[in-house]
Design a protein that fits this description.
The protein has 14 helices and 15 strands. It is an alpha/beta fold. It has a single domain, classed as Rossmann fold. It has a 6-stranded parallel sheet with strand order 7-1-8-9-12-15, with helices on both faces. Strands 11-10-13-14 form a 4-stranded mixed sheet. α2 packs parallel to α8 and α7 packs across α8. The longest helix is centred in the middle third of the chain and has 15 residues.
């Protein structure tokens, strides 16, 4: 179990994350042999809230203190627009959950009344501008945006069994295959994106994969979740700049929002992988420590028993570590390491909506600044695939947000995407 990060109590989480994002925006170049004409098409699945979403609000009644109508954007490191405050956006992005429903779990979640959501420029790089350095690097070796560089965005609040994700993504891959001379497509995912790719690869036939898929490059794939996923349910985080809320009102609106998102639970560390190997919450009022395997007790103790059906269904809800759920395509995984990474918090009690301050107790592990070593190493399970290629390349000192712009990573991506596939049945 990891120890207290006492010296980390003043860790500038917000600054570190923003600096990482700014580094990613710097131009990157990839070395290696140009792919030339007939390159293997690439479809990117972005990270958590790295797909541009437009929220259109018409006559909302969720909060009378918020504008009744208007629009705003949801995207990390982008201005959401002036129509709604941070608290209002949180409230309007909160999903309504029918806890008394007997419908399948994926059908129990609904938008607030008067709210509709769309993905502008779906399929195009413009839908995920954070990856501009990757697009530029691909262009230098013969790739073309909108032709053999496509982006399979998704609503990051939802799990991959919701919102038409599977059929929409399959259609984009098949279309990209046809429009590129029937060349199989290489899938690239960053952070949570690989979870959605894994769902797709385990919900399609081997014949479909053999026809349409060249291989899969997960960049810090968040397959088993991360410890910080639990903290979001108590302290929240502001998506536009990844800062912790600065006011009690914002902390409550943000934490409640994440409790309503089923994707929060697939982002939380799976006890089948993590067991009791890290502390996720310390309730200082009772001096109780919670690890991933304690999550049912954590929710009971916090008066959040209503979320346990969601947690039981979606924590570890996209299996990957057993042979029955191996992707069975060539995999070229990348990770970062060697950076102190926040995995848990000490809270004054288990009230939802607490502030993170300079005296907050932090628990850390080695990782990539966003995901810990347990998360990033878990993909090694796929080394047991019987025929398909598997590799996991470590990038020491390269943080989570720098991976997609790292020249070394991009050079390997281009080489791997244009290498022959394994000849597997």
């Amino acid at each position: 179990m990891n120890g207290l990060g006492g010296s980390m109590r003043a860790l500038p989480v917000r600054v570190a994350l923003i600096v990482a994002g700014l580094l990613l925006l710097m131009p990157a170049t990839a070395t290696g042999k140009p792919a030339g004409p007939g390159v293997t098409p690439i479809v990117l699945f972005p990270a958590w809230h790295f797909t541009r979403l437009t929220f259109t609000v018409m006559h909302q009644t969720t909060d009378p203190d918020c504008a009744r109508s208007g629009t705003f954007e949801d995207l990390v490191f982008e201005d959401p627009g002036p129509a709604f405050s941070q608290v209002c956006r949180d409230e309007l992005m909160t999903l309504r959950y029918d806890r008394h429903s007997h419908k399948p779990m994926r059908l129990r979640f609904h938008e607030q009344r008067g709210v509709t959501v769309s993905i502008p420029d779906y399929g195009e790089p413009a839908s995920a501008p954070f990856y501009e350095p990757m697009y530029e690097a691909l262009e230098t070796v013969g790739y073309t945006r909108g032709k053999d560089i496509r982006v399979a965005g998704y609503d990051a609040r939802l799990t991959p069994d919701m919102g038409g994700f599977l059929q929409r993504s399959k259609h984009l891959i098949e279309q990209t295959y046809r429009e590129n001379g029937r060349r199989p497509v290489h899938l690239v995912g960053h952070s949570n994106g690989p979870i959605y790719i894994q769902y797709l690869l385990t919900h399609t036939s081997q014949a479909w994969k053999s026809k349409y898929i060249h291989g899969f490059t997960p960049l810090a794939g968040n397959f088993p979740g991360q410890g910080l996923g639990y903290a979001l349910m108590f302290v929240g985080v502001n998506i536009p700049d990844l800062s912790f809320p600065a006011t009690p009102e914002n902390a409550v609106s943000s934490a409640r929002m994440f409790l309503s998102h089923p994707s929060t639970f697939i982002t939380a560390s799976d006890p089948r992988i993590f067991h009791d190997d890290e502390i996720i919450i310390h309730d200082q009022s009772t001096d109780t420590f919670y690890t991933p395997q304690d999550y049912p007790r954590l929710f009971d103790d916090a008066g959040l028993s209503w979320v346990k059906p969601i947690a039981n269904y979606y924590i570890g809800g996209v299996p990957f570590a057993d042979p029955a759920h191996f992707p069975n395509v060539d995999v070229y995984a990348e990770k970062g390491s060697g950076i102190d990474t926040l995995v848990g918090l000490g809270l004054t009690d288990l009230t939802v909506g607490q502030l993170v301050t300079g005296t907050t107790e932090f628990f850390t592990r080695d990782g990539d600044i966003n995901q810990e070593d347990i998360t990033n190493d878990a993909v090694n399970a796929w080394s047991a695939m019987s025929c398909w290629h598997f590799s996991l390349t470590d990038n020491p000192g390269v943080n989570h947000f720098e991976l997609p712009s790292s020249p070394d990573v991009l050079a390997r991506l281009i080489a791997d995407a244009n290498a022959p596939r394994s000849n597997c049945p």
